Amino acid sequence: MKKKQPGFVSSHSALKINRRHFLGAAAALALPAFIPARVLGLGDTPAPSNRINLGVIGCGRMGTSNIEAFLGLADCRIVAACDVDKNHLNATVRTINTKYNSNDCKAYHDFRELMARKDIDAVMLALPDHWHELMAVEAARQKKDIYGEKPLAHTVAEQQAIVKAVAANGRIWQTGSWQRSVANFHKAAEIVRNGLIGTIKRVEVGLPRDYNGAEKRRQNEMKPVPAPPELDYDLWLGPSRLMPYVPARMHRDWRWNYNTGGGQLMDWIGHHCDIAHWGCDFDNSGPSEVQGNGVFPPKGGVWDAAKTYRIELKYPRGIEMTIGGGQPDIKSGVKWIGTGGWVRVERGIFESSNEDWSDWKRVPEELRKVKLYESSEHHRNFLDCVKSRKPTITPAETAHHSAIPGHLGLISMLLGGRKLKWDVATEQILGDDQASKMLTRPFRAPWHLA
User: Fold this and answer.
1) If you classify domain 23-179 with CATH, what class do you get?
2) Nearest to residue 179, comparing CAs of 296, 308, 272, 303?
3) For the chain, which residues make up each domain, given as ranges?
4) Contacts of 304 (CB under 8 A, 6+ apart)
5) What are the average pLDDT values for consecutive 10-residue runs of the chain, which has 450 residues?
6) How would CATH label the architecture of 182-211+252-372+396-437?
7) pTM of the full predicted structure?
């Protein structure tokens, strides 16, 4: 793919008047940047000044889910979509324009052209892990607020680059770790944070195993073939190592190859480990010691991600954590075990050592010495924070720390179960040069780490 030439200007950026110019003028006049529609006599219809223009990049399974959510929010307008698969892109643009009864949403093949549009306030990124850092850093540099999927990035170094770029450019970031916006997870974490189970001694984090039925579903798509004409396969690979096109390594199932994904471990670490950290007050902390073991498929196959895995971690305050996928003694979800009881939470499930807690819709006010951030809907929270400029419920720093246990566990697994010492303050592996090199990865030219 050719690089964008110096002096490239999107046709959209040539508009003499756009929303950002309007906001700048409003600020100069000491007016609120977002003016309620009712003030302008528009009833419940958001005024242009109160509407967030959104670009979406990644129109696959998770991207479609996010797009549907944003389409349901009246103060958001999706004005651009980008994907390297023409079939996904065209279907998405049709859906968006049908919803708005217009042809305003434009299709893009190159994400840099979309991000160059000055009228776009924010972007939604739903991409394979190997693209997260490049897209997110470019978005931050282009002064876009970002809704990005988990895990934060493909390596620890890439996550650090995202955190730095978001902070340096003053961007609002929301990670798609949406469980924080669900009531039973919030209640469970708040019970633990308020000491109702006593002193936390142990945490169990249960994640999925295997390849989610993909082996059977894609058994006839395991051999290299020419890439289909609707897909720009070279751009899809982007910074990752060049590999033959194999249909079973593509849409949805890119996760099972470490060249582009991180297996079930990294696919889910930003969900349940994120909640485990929330309950332990580890959003800005992490483990000091990590040791992982995994069962891998035979070498030379289409997929190389561990099918089952177990990671043992040591945290501050003497807390021990086990992250397990396919481990019979570790149930799915999060279980905190303390000196005075326990709580387990999963999607649609709340269990505890105290039957009364199950009846609570939320922790009673008199027991809430620690009040956790509340959000009733994840995409709504993002838009509200874009307007207020207050942090979201899952900012980049939180997502970074939530994913580090998975990254370190994977490095340990790939090194045959080697025990790693982690310095939380410097974010370095201590005394192990080989493991330290695995905190990053080589990028395929012309791409490079920010």
Assistant:
1) alpha beta
2) 272
3) 23-179, 182-211+252-372+396-437
4) 256, 257, 258, 296, 297
5) 35 35 37 38 52 97 97 98 98 98 97 97 98 98 98 98 98 98 98 98 97 94 98 98 97 96 98 98 98 96 97 98 98 98 98 97 96 98 98 98 98 98 98 98 95
6) 2-Layer Sandwich (3.30)
7) 0.89
